[in-house]
Structures are given as C-alpha cells and as structure tokens.
Amino acid sequence: MPLSGRKSISNIRKAKQHVKNSNHVWNLPGRSGIVFHSVCIVFFVICTIVMIFRIMAYHSYGNLAGQAASVTQIESAQVTVNGETKPCSLPTKLKNLDPGTPVEVTFTLNNASNDTWMQIRTAFAPVTVYENGKKVYELGSKDTRPSFMKDPGTMIQFIQVKEQGEVEITLHYTSPTSRNFLTVSAPLISNQAGLLRYDSQKLEYVMGESFVLLIGGLLLAGISVFIIHLIHEGVILLCIGVFTAITGLWGISNCDLVLFFLNDPSLWYIVSYVCFFSILIPLEMFLEEYVHFHFRKLLQSLHYALCIMVPLTVMLQLTGTVMFSQSVRIYQCLLPASILAFTVGVIWEAARYRSRPAGQMIPGMVILSLSTIAELFNYSGSLEYDSSFYYLFGTGIFCLYMCFVGAVQVRRSYEDRRKAHELERQLTLMNQEIIEQKKYQDMVLSHERQLRRLRHDYRHQITVLQEFARNGETEELSAYLSEMMKAIPQNSDIRYTQNIAVNAVIAYYASQAKKKGVQTDIDLQLAATLSMDMEQSLCVVFGNLLENACEAIDRLDRGDNGAADKGGEQKRFIRLSAVEHQGNLIIHMENSMDGKIRKWGRFYISSKRQEVGIGLSSISNIAEMHGGDAEFHGENGVFVSDVYMELFPEDPQKYELQRDFS
User: Fold this and answer.
1) Residues 318 and 396 in one domain
2) Of the residues 9, 107, 167, 597, which has the maximum number of CB atoms within 10 A of its CB?
3) Interval 399-447: pLDDT, tens
4) Domain for residue 485, yes or no?
C-alpha cells in the first residue's frame, strides 16, 4: 500500500471521528438541527427589531426638548361644507364631495404651556392651519409636489401652538380630485416627544414587521441568485424573497411612522402604490414554478395581464391622467380575489391530482387568505386606514413557512438531479463495460480460431521441420521456426485487475488517456470475484475518478494555467493505486490539473457545467454507503483523491438497509 494512501486514509478517519464526537454533544442531527437553528435565528431577529422600535419610543429625539407628555385627542369639531356647518366627531369621513370642495374644521383648546404642539394628519388633501384666524402652516400645496400628482400623499406635521389660553384652531381642507370623499383625522395635542412616542407605540409592530420582511426578503433573494447559478429550482426561493421584500417595502411606505425617518410624502406615495400593484407578480410566479398547475394558461394570462397593467398604471400616473389613488380600486379587488383563487386552486390541485407540492402549500395559502380577509374587514371598518397589521402578519407567517418548504424542495430537486446524473453516468459506464467485454470476447474468439487453424496445420508443419532436421538445414529450420512464432496470436490486452467488470471500465479510460499522451501508472490489487452491488459501485467510483482526471487534463491541453515542470512543459499524468487491507479497499489517485479548484461549502463546482459537481459527490455517497469515506484536495497542480470502503461488510443485512435508504 502506498505511504501517501495510508496517510490520507488515516487523516480521513481522524477527521470523521472528530466530527462524530463533536456532533454527539452540540449538534442536532440532520433536518431537525436546521429547523431548530432557523427558528431560533428568526425569533431572535424579530424580537431584536421589535425591541429597537419600542426603545425608540422612549428616546429623547435629539432637539425634541422635555419629557414626553400625555396625548390629548380632539374628538369633536365644527365642520363646514359648502357653507353648511354642523358638529362632527373625529375622525370622520365626508362623502359625496365634488373635487376641490373647501372644507373647514374648527375646534378650540386651552393652552397653558409654551411647549404645546399639535399633530395634523391629512391624506390626499391640502390643508392650511389657522390659529385664532392667523395662518400658521400650510401642507400639500401644489409647489411641494410634482405636476403629475393632482393630490398630495399622506402627510403628518407637528405644529406648535404659540397662543396662550383659549385658542381657536381652523383647518382648511381642499377635498381630493381623485376621490369623492375626504377623511378628516383627529388632531393630537401634546409636546413633540409625547406625540412621537404616541406614534411609535401605535405603529411599532407594523413597522417592525415590515422591516423584518424587507430585510429577510432581500437576503433570501440575494442568496437565491447564487443558488440559481447552481440549480434552476432556486427560482422558487427568488420568487419568495422578492414577494417578501416587496410586501415589506409596501408595509414600510404605507406606515405613517416612515415620515419621521424621511419626510417625503410624494416619494412614499409612489413607493407604496407601486409595491402594492406589484405584489401579485412574484406570488403568481412562485406558485407556477412550485406547484406546476394543470391550468397553467389561466396563471399565465394573469401574469401577462399584471405585467401589462402595472407599467400602464405607472404611465397613467406619470402623465397625470389617472392617479394611483384611483387605480388602486382595481387592485384592491384583484389582490384578495387572486389570493383566494390561488388558495382554491392549490386545494383543487392537491385533491384532484394528488400533487405533493400543492398539498405542502395548503397551510401557507390558507394563512395568507385568512390574513387578507381580516385585512379587508379592517380596511372597510376603519375611518382612517394607517396600517396593514393583519396582512403583514399573515404574509410573514406565509413567507417563513414557504421558505422552509421551498428550501426542502430545492434540496430534493438537487438530490433528484444528482441521482439522475449518477444513474446516467452508471448507464454510460455499463455501456462502456459491455463494449470492452465484447472487445475482449471478440479477441478471445479470434485467438481460438487461429489456434484451431494452427492445430490443423500442425502435422504438416512437423513434417517440414523433420525434413529440415534430417537434411541438416539448420538455417532453414531456424527461419521456419521464426515464422511459426509470428503466426502464434499475441495477447495485447492489458489486464489491470482480474475482475472483468472493473477492468473493462478502467481499460476504457486508460486507453482514452493514452491516446492523449497521458502518462498512466495503474496498480490495482483487487479480488476477481465480488458481489454484483460492489462491482457496480466500484465501476462508478473508478469511472468517476478517471473521467474527472481526463477532463482536468483536457483543460491543461487548452492552456489553462497548468502545472509546469522545470522545462516549462506541462506534466500530464494519472497515477491510480488500490489495495485490499483488512477487508477494506483503499484507493489513492493523483492526477495533474490546471490549479483552479472552486468549492461551494463542502461541494466542488464542476468546470463543465458551472454547477455543483456530481462525480465527486457520487463517489463520497458510494463510499459512505459502503461504510467508508472519501477525501479530495488539490495543491501545486496535483489533484489527490483518497477513497476507502468496506469490501465485505460484517452485517450484510444492515448494509442492504442502508443502501435501500440511500
């Protein structure tokens, strides 16, 4: 046994024992460990973000002086519309208004402090604030927004009440041009710190949920881009990530608290509606990619309709023809209807066609549908809609669930693809084995025919030899014997091992390497008789090792920075040895390479397909299946492969169960 082979196998065994010992104490096995750590990380992130937002509510906010005071909400006021004044409770919604209708809201308050501030909130309606008949502030005027926005976005402003004693506040609204109603919010009275604390405590959970969705979606989308480079099914995770990120960004831009981070109502108006219009696109793509519905034409029709509607809606807003606040009515019906239709379709697909992916999606889609219905009731029953807690909460649960399901699906797809490649490779090796065995049999038959012919001519040749000997014609006798020697068939077949199946595979790749001028050194000590399963496994192992070596040498021939000897020429060699030792087969191989090894975690990246390599992974799986292990590394222009496996397992039944499970 080569010394380098013993050393490598020893290192593999030590590393394997070290991993086994460390896993025994700290790590949970397999999928359970992944689920446990994922739940812990998600719980930690959510709690941390919520905690940060709760702490912000008690922050001094820089130049916002003083302790946070209690907040007083103005609950009633005098409302004047078209010259008619009547008392109203706040907040209120004034309906059936013509575009641009002036509306006045008047109330009084007693101010006994020089640090009294008033929070004014308005949505899509400009407002001018008067204090005792004196104009003190104006919100949403035309010069504060782009020309394509007929109405301003949602605005929040802190305005100081400077007058002392009884103060009359008048809010002069101009009703929106894009809708026939005006929502009048209840003004809040406190100091600045108190108002900001009130808003933070009211909206912290919505803002926290939205940030979690946005950050998580962006991270998932970024990771999935790399996964797509390795396997196409990573598109599933990309769609989930984009859907999650868009939902999170929509929740942030739709939350009033965002105006305290960046007070640009027009920007958040655009972001909020564009995200809302786009939410369905990645969700539909995810469902189509994951479930593979039998009624795909309907989904494709919806997909193309959305892809046309969203840019068209943006163009109409950009030209000032139709405001987002008008177009949103279509999407407010389309979004819940589509989600409910998706849920029904998933249930139908699972029940009618026994679709496993559809069955896995049912819990997530039911949660998303219930949260959408709850949000519809919340929206229809609210006078002023300032958060989307139910939908965001349901979407968060849906995305967490689908991330796990999608990751499992990607893993399963990769395993199926790996097994398909492995079966294809085994079929190729079997075909090569059949071809080599046929060549060997043809050669044996040819030798037998020649031997029969020689036996037939044997008596005539003996007679000639006797005649030469009797006459003392030694030169003629020697020449005739030489001709007879040439006529004897020569065995040109190289036998690397006595096992016919394994020898056929090795002979094929060795001949391919020799044709390319590769120096081959093959020394195998292998039993002639092996079990059928072991023969197949060894054919795959040796075939993968030699095929990878030939491909690496092909890259050297293309001039890819190969290893060079002292003369400057590239070394092109394959050295393969195998020996039986105490019931184990120990394989050691070295081959030249171009010096470029790319890995993703513990996987090697194939230079042929630019994805996770199947060959080395197959070798490792076969070695583990036979109670062994494999190790690969490359340095100084040489790739080294060490594999050991049990030729004769002590417990055949245990081995068979392990093989069937794998």
Assistant:
1) yes
2) 9
3) 989 888 888 878 887 778 777 777 776 677 667 666 656 665 665 666 6
4) no
